[in-house]
Amino acid sequence: MSTTTRLPEFATTDLCDAHEDRLVAGTLRVLDPAFRQFGPRARFAGPAATVRCLEDNSMVRAALESPGEGRVLVVDGGASLRCALLGGNLAKLARDNGWAGVIVNGCVRDVAEMAAFDVGVRALATNPKRSDRRGGGVRDVPVDIGGVRVAPGYWCYADEDGVLVSDEPLVAG
């Protein structure tokens, strides 16, 4: 699989300005600005795939082992800061399997290692402790990230200004 991916041409600010009606209607939402950028890719977008897990990254690995096809994996880790759900090995899997990015409602680790992989990563914080691996969690279900619903197939847009979730693909107007 190719490791080079064409970066999307958009700005979250322009998308918000062009789709104010969707912001008002609730079909376009902004994730809490607590999500920080990790890894080298600041801008990424794609349809969402989802995982809900708590301190167990088994389903995160399973998802990233599958073809990403330009999607964004949204991981609802319950905002836990007690361990990391994504590290260097999983970031490499994401890159190798064609994922545009990973958004983790929780922690990541191996940040220096992640810098070598061209994949977008957003998370709340870092934690050097790895998660459990008990096979817990579920995939492809709607998740709630700080009051923002993300369902499989919704669209995620991330850049230097923030992260948007849309019920359908957007174009800047």
Helices and strands in order:
Layout: H1 12-18, H2 20-25, E1 28-30, E2 36-38, E3 44-52, H3 58-64, E4 72-76, E5 84-86, H4 88-96, E6 101-108, H5 111-114, E7 120-126, E8 138-139, E9 143-145, E10 148-150, E11 155-159, E12 162-166
Parallel strand pairs: 3-4, 4-6, 5-6, 6-7
Antiparallel strand pairs: 1-12, 2-7, 3-8, 3-11, 9-10, 11-12
Descriptive report:
The protein has 173 residues and is an alpha/beta fold. It has one domain: Ribonuclease E inhibitor RraA/RraA-like (Glucose Oxidase, domain 1). Helices cover 19% and strands 32% of the residues. It is built from five helices and twelve strands. The strands form two sheets. Strands 1, 2, 3, 4, 5, 6, 7, 8, 11 and 12 form a ten-stranded mixed β-sheet that branches. A two-stranded antiparallel sheet has the order 9-10. Strand 6, helix 5 and strand 7 form a beta-alpha-beta unit.
Main beta sheet: strand number and arrangement? 10 strands, mixed
What are the secondary-structure elements, in order, as H or E?
HHEEEHEEHEHEEEEEE
The overall average pLDDT, rounded, is 93
Shape: globular
Number of distinct beta strands: 12
Cα(first) to Cα(last) distance is 33 Å
User: Structural class of the helices, strands and pairings?
Assistant: alpha/beta
Number of helices: 5
CATH fold-level label: Glucose Oxidase, domain 1
Q: What is the CATH architecture annotation?
A: 3-Layer(bba) Sandwich
Low-confidence stretches: 1-7
User: By CATH's scheme, which homologous superfamily applies?
Assistant: Ribonuclease E inhibitor RraA/RraA-like
What's the Cα radius of gyration? 15 Å
Roughly what fraction of the amino acids lie in strands? 25-35%
Tell me the number of structural domains. 1
CATH uppermost class: Alpha Beta
The level of helicity is 10-25%
